[in-house]
Design brief:
With 221 residues, the protein is of the alpha/beta class. 55% of the residues lie in helices and 13% in strands.
């Protein structure tokens, strides 16, 4: 039996965390071996990088896109070697909140050329790709309204707001890049409308996940 690698992608506020939790709980109820992680932040090093990448830069210094890009790939390199690859080698189901497609969408929208992304992909991923990517699609206008409500509920101590505060035009570019990725990779990417009710989104995800797990040898009804 081989491990299965599933990523969940989407714009801010599209419901990734909710659906990741629901999927992981469902798999655990079935008695399946699950590893749940995220990027950035899936390792001790990653948690330090996550603070740098997602919290507002109090210094006021503007980072060049390439500097930001390299930090994301530093997080990914450590994550792959210490979490993802070992779990797959142990025939586990690995669920990750954000991965390579987010880098392509967000850093691409920041102006990083595809050639730079391709080179770092070759160095860090070494050919590894998710077996399935669940891409939750939603218009940025609606998703950012969700983000505002969430951040207010979390209170002033919640600091991971740097990308939330980017312009609407930036978030539109990010969404467009996600849609292009889905169009290019229809066999890997399941594009799912995130505006639908939460239970309906969960059901749509399971329609794509269950056959994948069965084909990999996991007992799924």
């Amino acid at each position: 039996m081989q491990g299965v690698f599933i990523t969940i992608e989407g714009v801010e506020g599209s419901g990734k965390s909710t659906q990741l939790l629901r999927l992981s709980e469902r798999l655990r109820r079935l008695g399946l071996p699950v590893v749940v992680s995220k990027e950035p932040g899936g390792t001790a090093l990653g948690r330090e990088l996550r603070r740098l990448l997602l919290e507002r830069h109090v210094s006021g210094e503007t980072w060049c896109p390439e500097a930001e890009l390299l930090l994301f790939y530093a997080d990914r390199a450590q994550h792959l070697e210490t979490v993802i690859r070992p779990a797959l080698a142990e025939a586990k189901i690995v669920l990750v909140d954000r991965f390579e497609d987010s880098t392509r969408a967000y850093q691409g929208a920041s102006g990083v050329p595809e050639s730079s992304l391709d080179r770092l992909n070759d160095v860090v991923l070494r050919g590894l790709k998710p077996h399935l990517t669940v891409m939750l699609d939603m218009d940025p206008e609606g998703s950012l309204q969700r983000v505002e409500v969430r951040n207010l509920a979390l209170g002033s101590e919640y600091a991971e707001t740097r990308f939330d505060e980017a312009t609407l035009d930036f978030h539109r570019r990010v969404r467009n890049r996600f849609l292009i990725i889905a169009q290019k990779h229809p066999n890997r990417v399941a594009l799912i409308p995130a505006r639908n009710p939460v239970d309906q989104v969960e059901a749509s995800i399971w329609v794509r996940v269950a056959p994948l797990l069965r084909s990999a040898g996991f007992g799924v009804d």
